[in-house]
Amino acid sequence: MITELLSGLALFLFGMKYMSDSLQQAAGEKLRGVLDKCTKTKFIGVVFGALFTAFIQSSGATTVMEVSFVNAGILTLERSVGLTFGANIGTTITSQLVSLKLTAVAPFIIFIGSAVLMFGKKPLLKKIAAVIFGFGALFLGINFMTGALGQIPEYESLVRIFEYLDNPFIAVLLGLVLTVIVQSSSVTVSVLVLLAGSGLVEPLACLYFILGANIGSCTPAVMAAMNANRNAKRTAFIHVMFNVVGLVVISIILAFASQTIINGIMGISGSGDFKRFVANADTLFKVFQTIILFPCSGLLVKLSKKVIHSKGNEEHDENEMVLKYIGVSGAPSSSTAMVEIVQEIERMALMVRENLEFSTRALIENDRSASDDVYKREKYIDFLSHRITEYMVKANQYGMPIKDRERLGGLFHVVIDVERIGDHAVNIMDDAFKEKNKKINFSNEGKKELIKMYNKVIKIFDESVKTFVNNDKSNMDKINELEDIIDQMQIDYQEGHVERMAAGDCSIEAGLIFTDLVIGLERIADHAVNIAYSILPEKK
């Protein structure tokens, strides 16, 4: 019996994980694309959160994505509330599926899924086949567990253990602990469906167990928020409060009207169908919690801001080198990895821009006051380059949508291009010190040309980073036009400077530094263009 039970549980968990991961791969890119539209109002957010979670069958995955997106600034705290409510409703789809009598067709479903996986050639077809295979494995696991649990009534000592669940406190605690261990209320409630179907757990005990499992389901979001910023922590806090308030309110109702509640749910489920009873109770509780808390969502946001103050991840010493966005959700997820990487690269690019600005000012305006900051920031940039690349290598080892995998290759080059621009900025600062030590001065005309070229380079850098971050091709013509202008500037300014040196208006030493700077600025523009072109299937 134990072997059959454990085998069934392992197969159930494998099927659920395999199906969920496959669905996340398919939905990850689309989720990011529709996230803004589907969270404009809290009600739409609830509906979207419920549908998306039902689709991937994991509220944990949804809330971890949510925490990551809030941390990255892609999703606001206020907009995340609807997703949190919806995710709690959507996760009940698993227990509803488990309550259905589909175990007889499980082997047939597995056969179809595995056959297409082995012989299918189209990526989309294989993705669908993976979902089908996971779905079949899930129900085959249920079949094994049902057979094993059906033998428990024959063992009186085991039956007595389940009698302890008649104590509401123990039922809540067990539901919470088991869900924390497996980090999925879908799993624990699904097992409860099977236990109830075998007559091992009383209806009232099932209700309290569900309430405990709801609290335990907050674990993935809480863990993801531990290293995140304050708004991400507040998102996790709201998730916890949603289920804590549900536990308190529903427990009070059950204390006074438990039999009425049980009879009502049983009436919906069908007399004697305890599997449907548990599945429906799970869904109804989540819907009820959403109804009573939806009008109070603003209060939950205010409470989260009072409880979680402006302390934590944002208050790192500015000299302490840390990743701000990457790794918040733990292991790379197909739906969050790309968002985290792009946000961290943008952060790195902003540091490079600062260095470029201060270095050029030091050379042209003889203002070297920020030189120490430039060299410190360069070390930070090198740190980010190394850690981002390290994370991308790790992310590449996980299953990712084909579009994301293709873009990931381009991101490796973007990190290199951003770092190279940072190196050029440091070279400019080095030239500024050469200028100071050798008492070199540019002519007024030379300074004007350098400032003009620098402004164009900063413009192409900003446009390229914006194009990259927003994955927006509409600026490509503008970027190409700027590149042509900068290329022509390099030619014209070098020729003009040679003429000034010949006329004695500029020293040879100043000419060498001027030439280095013009060439360096043109190369920075080339790297900027590469950053923009990384969003295209083929580089220029």
TrEMBL record:
GO cellular component, one term: plasma membrane
Signal peptide location: none
Positions of the PhoU domain: 345-431, 451-534
Principal place of residence: membrane
Compartment annotation: Cell membrane
Topology in membrane: Multi-pass membrane protein
GO biological process: sodium-dependent phosphate transport
Keywords, ordered alphabetically: Cell membrane, Membrane, Transmembrane, Transmembrane helix
Residue ranges crossing the lipid bilayer per the database entry: 98-119, 128-149, 169-195, 207-226, 238-262
One family name in Pfam for this protein: PhoU
SUPFAM superfamilies on file: PhoU-like
GO molecular function annotation: sodium:phosphate symporter activity
Protein name in the entry: Na/Pi-cotransporter II-like protein
